[in-house]
Fold this sequence. Notes:
The structure is a single chain. 48% of the residues lie in helices and 15% in strands. It contains 17 helices and twelve strands. The longest helix is centred in the last third of the chain and has 25 residues, at 396-420. The protein starts with a helix and ends with a helix.
Amino acid sequence: MLTNEYLKRVYAQVEKRDGHEPEFLQAVREVFESLELVIDKHPEWEKNALLERFVEPERVIEFRVPWVDDNGNVQVNRGYRVQYNSAIGPYKGGLRFHPSVNLSVIKFLGFEQCLKNSLTTLPMGGGKGGSDFDPKGKSDAEVMRFCQSFMTELYRHIGQFTDTPAGDIGVGGREIGFLFGQYKRIVDQHAAGVLTGKGLTFGGSLARTQATGYGLCYFSAEALKYLANTTYEGKTVVVSGSGNVAQYCAQKVTQLGGKVVAMSDSQGYIYDPNGVDLKKLFDIKQRRRARISVYADEVPGSEYHVGCRDIWNVKCDIAHPCASQNEMDEKGAQALVDNGCMAVFEGANMPLTPEAIAVVQKNGLLYSPGKASNAGGVATSGLEMSQNSIRMSWSFDEVDEKLHGIMKNIYKACYDASVECGKPGDLMLGANVAGFLKIAEAMLAQGVV
């Protein structure tokens, strides 16, 4: 509950203007509740209308995306790019292609991205974009035609010193390749730094594919070590989702001695008491682009259950929600508590509802928000931009080492901020406060812009 009058007034303005954008309101309220503990120390924020400026994106771009399917029919989707805040660097954030994409989702993601990028300590502002286009079930030719149409509008708004998109849900190496090809064709420049997540043959970075999932585990390992005096070794783990983040989270969990027993997609989840066979999962998802139900058809002893939200009923020590926003509600969180789960570390962006977070924190589980624990992806995107700028490629181990160091530093920043706020170990509070303070300082230094 908000008690500070300035925070209440600004949030009321957001509700009045953006009451039809529930995901955005949810993200703003969570951060404002954290700022309650520090706002009295910063009267300059109200004097300079800092929060009023922060809750308004610097620029919102919305456009139509016409394309032709394989049957010769014209299809029309809606495209977005929200350039949220550039106080600490060029706008940086992914593109999401998914039917659920709308302006509220893109704004909340852009808002979260600002704080996430701030935590990495790299000079990157926050932005997000995407479309309600669904690449699932589309041919490579259809995806290419859509991406080319999307970039034909987007190109005029991005640049390596302006706005540098990357991938997100529905946008992997294939889509980034098509998008970059069209950008290069239009601007007649091989400006590699304009997009990240590229293929290794044209400016991509080793370890970028693995970065979000690996970084999640590096952050979580620090929290387990310092807040619970334990490790992944011997732990049973549930990872929701089966996309890029989930796949490489599961891989790193396994490398660190944990056992992943359940994963999901939008239709349902698999349970494998022997531990998910990652080689089989990667083949199903990366090569065949098939539903996760195929896993249960091909792996003896495993089960498939319809309904992805029920994955939280699987008994585990650690939960990694890596699918999408608000995928875990109060019921799911309570199921984890009842089954003896000790920690929930987010891999997706805002995957827990506010009610789920309350259950997790009330029952003393370790918890980290995605803006902190999944920041490894954008951090490594920043490292890809650095490599592009100096015309060099670092080895996998070099990038992985830098990523590991960044995630350790993010954990420390979150923990230190939680201590300063009088709530040691509250990593959500720490992430929100530490991320915002850097942005606030930069905004104040740059005047009313």
